[in-house]
Amino acid sequence: VAGTGNFLVSIRWDDYDITDDCRWTGDIVLKDTAILTMGKTITLAQNRTVAQTTRDAETGLFAGRTRWTCEAGSYLRQENVSTIRLTEGSSLVFESGSRFVQAFDASMEVGAGCTLRFVDDADVMLRGILEVDSGGVCYMTDTIGMGATARIIVRPGGKLVVDGGMLTSVDSGGMWQGVEVWGHRNRHQTAADQGTLELRNGAVIENALCGVRTGRGSDSLHTTGGIVTAENSTFRNCAKAVEFLPYTDTIANGLIASNHGGFTNCTFTVDDNNLFAAGNASFTAHATLCQVKGVEFLGCTFLNLTSSPLYRGRAIYAQEAGFTVDEYCDYQQLPPAQPGVCGCPPEYSDSCLFEGFATAIDAGTAGTPFAVTVNRARFANNSTSVRINANNFATVTECDFDLTDCEPFGRLACGLNLDNCTGYKVEGNAFYRDSYPNPVFCTDNHTGVQVTASGSAANSIYRNGFTNLTKGIAVSGSNGGLQIGCNGFTNNSYDIHIPAGASVAMSQGTLSAGADNVFEQTRVSSIYNASGQKLIYRYSAGNGHAPYSPYNVMPDA
Questions:
Q1: Judging by beta carbons within 10 Å of its beta carbon (0-12, 13-18, 19+), is residue 104 exposed, middle or buried?
Q2: How far is CA 93 from CA 102, 124, 170, in A?
Q3: pLDDT on residue 437
Q4: What pLDDT is stored for residue 12 in this prediction?
Q5: What Rg value do the Cα atoms of the chain yield, rounded?
Q6: How many alpha carbons lie under 13 Å from residue 460 in its C-beta half-sphere?
Q7: pTM of the entire structure?
Q8: What is the Cα–Cα distance from 506 to 483, expressed in whole angstroms?
Q9: If we measure between CA atoms, which residue out of 361, 372, 367, 411 comes closest to residue 394?
Q10: Are the C-beta atoms of residues 236 and 230 closer than 8 Å to each other?
Q11: Which of 468, 463, 428 is nearest to 448 (CA)?
Q12: Is the C-alpha dihedral spanning 226, 159, 153, 184 positive or negative?
């Protein structure tokens, strides 16, 4: 009261609004309701007032770190354009049974040394921006609802961990923006210099326009390099699940290190429960890679279960990029090495699976390529399983290509398409249909391997199996160095098909070592050669090595 030295304090029990910018310190507990009104900011900071009798071991002050706990039954709401800022090592925890709602255009910032944690059974809805700055960490262990405008940004040096949690859309018919993992394009790929995202223990990213992007959406070329790792996690019904933007890490002697990003035992899937039409989006690919090296996909499953042909898309789409698709081996469970046993036994390994795509793996190169490796993967119900263009370091080995189903893709299917490639290794694969259809409905062109213009360099297609196909191996263009040897062909219309204008090495096999393919139950011709030059085919007599009804071929047993 004026002139008396007394103060008059009014207390309202139901006044939950925070209408001024605030700096909060100490041990804060929310038990009821707090509403941060439009345009206002709460800053959590270090308490520098004496609050304990001894210096804190962590802060060195007479006060500990600031900690804000939202307990069960509490409700915290951010209105539009409001900000919650964690600074100076503070933390914010939403406990089980608490509720948090972030309005459109609101933001939460996790600063250096700070921690934001959403625990199991917290009711969380984000519609603005969650930003994890350098040195900050955010943990999510349960379902987080994401509005149509919601976006998570992990800045260089920041870290987001989704441990068994789910990030999914909440607005009716809307897809959310996704997670951006920023970096420094010209620095090494370390946790200090790049943002980090870890997905593990059943984590799910669902219904995002782009689930994860390694760079800033509006300025991606200067902010790439983010580290993305996922294990036992799922990407479901995202228009694009993962996007790796251009980044190379040049180390000693000009060598380029492999990207630290990788996926182990993850599932990438789209189905008819997607929100693409409502979100004005379309499925493009589960994973796109541009100018990166060495991203790994180990034991992953890629599925397209949609019924619409509009959403066939790709599983992996790579441009000027190198990557590895391989089995996952559980080394912790492996028994001691046994004589004569090579590789990972099937009971301890999980192969990658690709099913339902227009082109499952599509890798294209215009400049100097990085290596593309596809090993021990399974393909089913794809129009084209693997297409590799202009890559000189492609390896496709011990894969299973099931070309049985031709619907809904029409009457064309191809296992492996090598276009303008050389230096490739194609070995130990199986290309097949379950049976040769009768009546003949989808036999116009089911091809195991299509090779186009591989040039005069020595290349080989070796020790593969081709069964019940229209064409086992088909070539086009100049392939003057291509040797086709020790493959098994069973019940195909054409085992090796060389049309007019195409070529392979004119002498298949040598005097000391025959080509020695095995031809069984060939329907039309084992070797059809319309190139205009007579082909010399050397083989070991007997044992099914002789070609059946060869055309323009001089067999030389």
A1: middle
A2: 15, 12, 22
A3: 66
A4: 72
A5: 30
A6: 14
A7: 0.93
A8: 9
A9: 372
A10: no
A11: 468
A12: negative
Residue linked to tokens 């001894």: 54
Q: What is the pLDDT of residue 349?
A: 86
Residues with Cβ within 8 Å of residue 194, at least 6 apart in sequence: 156, 157, 181, 182, 183, 184, 187, 225, 226, 227
Q: CB–CB of 240/286 below 8 Å?
A: yes
Contacts for 301 with CB less than 8 Å, ≥ 6 apart: 266, 267, 268, 269, 352, 353
Q: Give the count of alpha carbons within 13 A of 143, CB side only.
A: 9
Rounded Cα gap, residues 358 and 354, in angstroms: 11
Count of CB atoms within 10 A of residue 20's CB? 9
Q: Two tokens at 213?
A: 């992007």
At 311, is the secondary structure helix, strand, or coil?
helix
* Owner of token pair 């580290």: 227
Query: Hey, is 554 helix, strand or coil?
Result: strand
Spell out the residues 6+ positions from residue 341 whose beta carbon is closer than 8 angstroms to its own.
none
Q: Are 455 and 478 in contact (CB under 8 A)?
A: yes
Distance CA 135, CA 191 (A): 9
The values of phi and psi at residue 95, to 5°, are -80, 170
How far is Cα 487 from Cα 451, in angstroms, rounded to an integer?
15
* Residue burial 110-127, b: 16+ Cβ < 10 Å; e: rest: bbebbbbbbbeebbbbbb
pLDDT computed for residue 173 by the predictor: 67
Encode 161-176: b = buried (16+ Cβ within 10 Å), e = exposed: bbebbbbbbbbeebbb
Residue 406 near residue 374 (C-beta atoms within 8 A): no
Tell me how far apart the alpha carbons of residues 468 and 411 are, in angstroms, rounded to a whole number.
15
Q: What are the percentages of helix, strand and coil residues in the chain, rounded to 5?
A: 0, 45, 55
Q: Are 454 and 481 within 8 A, CB to CB?
A: yes
Which H, E and C letters describe 115-184, residue by residue?
EEEECCCCEEEECCEEEECCCCEEEECCEEEECCCCEEEECCCCEEEEECCEEEECCCCCCECEEEECCC
Q: Could you give the dihedral angle defined by the CA atoms of residues 375, 378, 382 and 384, in that order, rounded to the nearest 10 degrees?
A: 20
Tokens of 344: 């990972």
Beta 349-350 vs 328-329: how paired, if at all?
antiparallel
Token code pair at residue 191:
């946790």
Spans of the chain, pLDDT less than 50: 408-409, 439-443
**pLDDT score recorded for residue 444:** 57
